[in-house]
Amino acid sequence: MLKINKPIVLASASPRRQVLLKQIGLKFTVHPSGIDEDSIQSISPADHVLNLSKKKATEVAKKYDDAIIISADTIVVLEGEIINKPKDPNEAKQMLRKLSGKTHQVYTGFTILDTKTGRFISDFEVTDVKFRELSDEEIDEYVATGSPLDKAGAYGIQDDYGAVFVEKINGCFYNVVGFPLTKFYLRMKEFLSDD
């Protein structure tokens, strides 16, 4: 188990990230960054999620003198195109039609920042996800639930109908949920041992 002797702040409103961090025994408060995610322009998907997670952590760190900030950003990438959260149901349907029958990548970048020392560590994970062919009816029914509207790529693998769209994955399952638990755990242990 991770032993952290200062307050932990999660710079994210994602209910999925909260569940995953509780799963490994972390106690934390939630303080979303409020960063405009569309303002970040990056050359590669990895840079995109790393830059955004660092910006989120730095923004929230301004409010805490002595805490550990954990931030993350998840995107879906199809043939080099970054697919964020849909703005409305029509965009969600377009995204799902694009992903249908294809393999895409899910990238999550995360940052761990100590507000007292300014020390931080950032890393990312990438997972391949293969969708089966989706019918228009399935897409319409799923989007009508409202569930896809707060998720990168307009689907969730873990707790709703989106799970049956995924034919197979190659890589970290939890990364597709929104937080690469194993890589985070190992990097957090490294971060704490450097204190």
From TrEMBL:
<dbReference type="GO" id="GO:0036221">
    <property type="term" value="F:UTP diphosphatase activity"/>
</dbReference>
<keyword id="KW-0963">Cytoplasm</keyword>
<keyword id="KW-0378">Hydrolase</keyword>
<comment type="function">
    <text>Nucleoside triphosphate pyrophosphatase that hydrolyzes dTTP and UTP. May have a dual role in cell division arrest and in preventing the incorporation of modified nucleotides into cellular nucleic acids.</text>
</comment>
<feature type="site" description="Important for substrate specificity">
    <location>
        <position position="74"/>
    </location>
</feature>
<protein>
    <recommendedName>
        <fullName>dTTP/UTP pyrophosphatase</fullName>
        <ecNumber>3.6.1.9</ecNumber>
    </recommendedName>
</protein>
<comment type="similarity">
    <text>Belongs to the Maf family. YceF subfamily.</text>
</comment>
<dbReference type="InterPro" id="IPR003697">
    <property type="entry name" value="Maf-like"/>
</dbReference>
<feature type="active site" description="Proton acceptor">
    <location>
        <position position="73"/>
    </location>
</feature>
<keyword id="KW-0546">Nucleotide metabolism</keyword>
<feature type="site" description="Important for substrate specificity">
    <location>
        <position position="158"/>
    </location>
</feature>
<dbReference type="GO" id="GO:0005737">
    <property type="term" value="C:cytoplasm"/>
</dbReference>
<dbReference type="GO" id="GO:0036218">
    <property type="term" value="F:dTTP diphosphatase activity"/>
</dbReference>
<dbReference type="GO" id="GO:0009117">
    <property type="term" value="P:nucleotide metabolic process"/>
</dbReference>
<feature type="site" description="Important for substrate specificity">
    <location>
        <position position="16"/>
    </location>
</feature>
<dbReference type="Pfam" id="PF02545">
    <property type="entry name" value="Maf"/>
</dbReference>
<comment type="function">
    <text>Nucleoside triphosphate pyrophosphatase that hydrolyzes 7-methyl-GTP (m(7)GTP). May have a dual role in cell division arrest and in preventing the incorporation of modified nucleotides into cellular nucleic acids.</text>
</comment>
<comment type="similarity">
    <text>Belongs to the Maf family. YhdE subfamily.</text>
</comment>
<dbReference type="InterPro" id="IPR029001">
    <property type="entry name" value="ITPase-like_fam"/>
</dbReference>
